[in-house]
Write a structure and sequence with these properties.
alpha+beta; 18% strand; 2 domains; Deoxyuridine 5'-Triphosphate Nucleotidohydrolase, Chain A; four-stranded parallel beta sheet; Rossmann fold; five-stranded antiparallel beta sheet
Length: 426
């Protein structure tokens, strides 16, 4: 199931998956507009709503039994209505969700691909032009009146702003759907997709569990429709938005102001404890790098960038930890050397693992996780930081930071305000 808002590149993605010949034939089989569904009714010889889903399943499946479907959020009610009309689902509970009905009909939970576009303003301009001219794809035959309509299309700040709101709202609706049903979703960002077309398609095949050996992907047949007018309108819109200090009401309480372009790496930290670790920006320097002859290590730009690529969580109390070599949690001896209770370092898991409590709940933008690791380029003798990825765009719980002692009977000291973790959106 390709889940999208209009003008996200979902048609390009659906075409690419159809071209594989093994990932179904995704298309917009369901729509609230009768004239669009009429195309499938006529093409597939559908005579009633009761047989609509079955005939679509056949038409949208490849020989390996994989069915593909593309769905915009506003089309979901049409799919829901057709599922409820299917005889096999006649006894389904009235409160059954779209996901539950799909799972029941297909015999397995669908795999969801969320197609999004980072640049909401470009998406809105594209949407406006396509809606006004009827030219939705680069392969559409642009009739003379359509070309004329596009050439005569006036810039409309308010209408573009409305489309920005709409596509932003659609993303929020899909996000709520995935969260409510606790679904694992593969998110594809349009800007990344067009930059890595083949790699993205292969990643999707892997996500779907479809082998790709011996397969060569044909180049895309659809081309980008953005042109100089798109860039002109974008510049003009941003200038007017700044000039007017735009603060327009939104349909979503979560987004009360006009969002022109979503921040790609937004991060919020909710402090859960007054004793939480100190949270600071990571700086460029490292003591050992400064100590190299003529500070030679500091000339390595990739390392300097990595040093600053995130935020640091700092230790609250100086302590020493020693491991006696046994796997039991009691084998770690932690000796606090200053500071008052409560302490934030414990031995819980055993296997020489030292655990720090963090004291924050982090929240990232939809589609972004939180990469948690040790401070970049900060080796520490006798112990190594473990790292993980936290699904911070939905999780409702905090996490711990763990280190593993690697040498028995060797005291390892953590100083007060020494970094114990480094975090960055991913």
């Amino acid at each position: 199931m390709i889940c999208a808002a209009p003008r996200t590149g979902s048609t390009l993605l659906a075409q690419a998956l159809r071209d594989t010949g093994r990932a179904g034939r995704p298309n917009e089989f369901f729509d609230i507009h009768e004239h669009n569904e009429r195309f499938w009714i006529n093409s597939l010889g559908i005579t009633s709503d009761a047989e609509y889903v079955d005939k679509v399943l056949t038409a949208g499946s490849t020989e390996n039994g994989i069915f593909g479907q593309k769905l915009h959020w506003h089309q979901a009610p049409a799919l829901l209505a057709k599922l409820r009309a299917a005889p096999a689902l006649a006894d389904a509970p009235a409160q059954a969700s779209l996901h539950e009905l799909l799972t029941r009909k297909l015999g397995a939970a669908p795999r969801y691909i969320w197609m999004r576009r980072r640049d909401k303003l470009a998406q809105a301009i594209s949407y406006l032009r396509a809606a006004r001219t009827g030219i939705w794809r680069s392969t559409d035959e642009a009739r003379e009146n359509a070309r004329r309509a596009d050439a005569d299309l006036p810039f409309d700040f308010d209408q573009i702003a409305e489309y920005v709101r709409f596509v932003t709202d659609v993303d929020l609706q899909w996000q709520a759907f995935f969260r409510k049903n606790r679904l694992k979703v593969l998110m594809i960002v349009y800007e990344n997709f067009i930059a890595a077309y083949e790699a993205t398609v292969f990643n999707i095949l892997e996500f779907l569990g479809i082998p790709r050996d011996g397969f060569v992907l044909a180049p895309p047949r659809l081309q980008r429709q953005a042109d100089e007018r798109t860039l002109q309108w974008r510049r003009r819109f941003l200038e007017l938005a700044k000039e007017r200090r735009v603060d327009l009401p939104s349909r979503q309480p979560a987004a009360p102001t006009l969002v022109v372009e979503e921040p790609p790496l937004s991060l919020r930290a909710y402090q859960l404890s007054p004793h939480a670790a100190r949270l600071v920006k990571s700086g460029r320097g490292r003591d050992w790098m400064d100590a190299t002859p003529v500070r030679f290590a500091c000339r390595c730009l990739p390392m300097v960038i990595a040093n600053q690529h995130g935020w640091l969580l700092l230790n609250r109390h100086k302590f020493a930890v020693t491991w006696n070599g046994d796997p039991d949690p009691s084998a770690l001896a932690i000796q606090f050397l200053g500071g008052e209770e409560p302490r934030n370092a414990v031995s819980t898991f055993g296997s020489s693992i030292l655990t720090f409590t963090i004291g924050y709940l982090f929240r990232t933008a939809p589609g972004y996780n939180l990469h948690v690791r040790g401070p970049a380029n900060s080796p520490k003798d006798g112990i190594v930081a473990l790292e993980g990825v936290v699904e911070s765009d939905w999780t409702e719980a905090t996490f711990t930071m763990n280190w593993k002692v690697t040498r028995p009977n060797h005291p390892v000291v953590f100083e007060e305000n020494e970094p114990i973790a480094m975090i960055s959106p991913l």
